[in-house]
Amino acid sequence: MRPPGAASGADFPELALQISATLARLRAAREVTVGCSLKEPVWSCGKTTLYRYAPLTATRWPRPVLICFALVNRPYVLDLQPDRSLVRAFGLPTRNEIDALYAQVKDLRQQLAELAAAAGEKRRAAPQPAPRKARSSAPRSRARRPRR
Question: What domain range includes position 101?
Answer without folding.
Answer: 92-124
